[in-house]
Amino acid sequence: MLTKRLMTALVLGSALAVACDTRGLSYGDPNSVIAVMSPELWEDVSETVYGELEQTIVTVRDEKSFTVTYQEPYAEHWPNLRRFRQMLLVGTLSDPWIREALEASDEDITSPGLYRIRNVWSLDQAVTLVIGPEGGAATELEEQLPVIHATLDAEYRTYARSRMYLSGADSALADTLATDAGFSLLLPKVYVWIHRDSTFVFRNDNPDPSELIRQVGVTWRSPAPAELDVDDVLAWRADLATSNYTEPQEFVTEGMAVDTVTFGGHRAMEIRAQWRNPPDRGWPAGGPLMIRVVTCDSQDRTYLLDAWLYAPGHGKYEYMIQLETLLDTFECG
Predict the structure, then answer these.
(1) Total number of domains in the chain
(2) Residues 292, 327 share a domain
(3) For residue range 291-332, what is the model confidence (pLDDT) as tens digits?
(4) Cβ neighbours of residue 271 under 8 Å, at least 6 residues apart?
(5) pTM for this one?
(6) 289 in helix, strand or coil?
(7) Which residue range(s) make up the domain with 174?
(8) What are the distances in angstroms from CA 223 to CA 177, 193, 239?
(9) Is the dihedral of CA 28, 16, 99, 109 positive or negative?
(10) Which of 168, 157, 85, 201 is nearest to 328 (CA)?
């Protein structure tokens, strides 16, 4: 069944097709995949496809990183759905939808396998072809699904990072922070910042803080504590939020994940969880957060990096990739 968003895209696509019979831009979200194969094959593999490609991430609830919509070849809406940005075509070299894609792209593919081709029916389009031997398309697809997901996810992360830096990277701010504060972050130019003593807050609430806020807080302790456990870190984060954030935040321990990550040569404790505002604020608000604690031995400092998101009614995967990218740019010493 087609979603409301897909139906809207189809209406727009039909209008474009009437207006102009040339290949135009693709449409659809970059994490929305149109899966095309025979109905019989789809019946056999649909659960496997959903399970592998619609993997969930934890934000304020489980959120699909990608959504998959099945399309029967040459059924209703085929002329428009084949113009979506992300396509997954499965079949054999004798299947007409596979032949059509190869002819439209001028690709010289003559053997089964996994292929990634571009701009087949529309510009800025990526088509994943899974070509199996006669009678063996299901096996070929199931074997390739982990690779397909990894490829889609890597490309989506590149897309999210590129969108984040559309305003340009604020290298001047990074240099200023390195000189005056002893650490740096490479932020987009749209971020505003304030600081007090050893605490810095960087915020992007464009276009409207009631709809979207991305914020990163950085503070440190010196001399570096000999050891910090999770409770110590959460208490430190609570102090940071209480003293420096415009609205109070409560930490949600349910679903909290603690890990050790390495980035930029640093080894850090990472905590992923949720925040919410207190009940007495009169309106519900909350979102995902990411905390990293990293020690810079050359400075005898331990840094707390706190990134959080407020995006009610929006998918949060793209924005969490952006916040993760910002934390990955952290340097000290």
Answers:
(1) 2
(2) yes
(3) 999 999 999 999 999 999 999 988 899 999 999 999 999 999
(4) 230, 233, 234, 256, 257, 258, 290, 291, 292
(5) 0.85
(6) strand
(7) 167-332
(8) 20, 25, 18
(9) negative
(10) 157
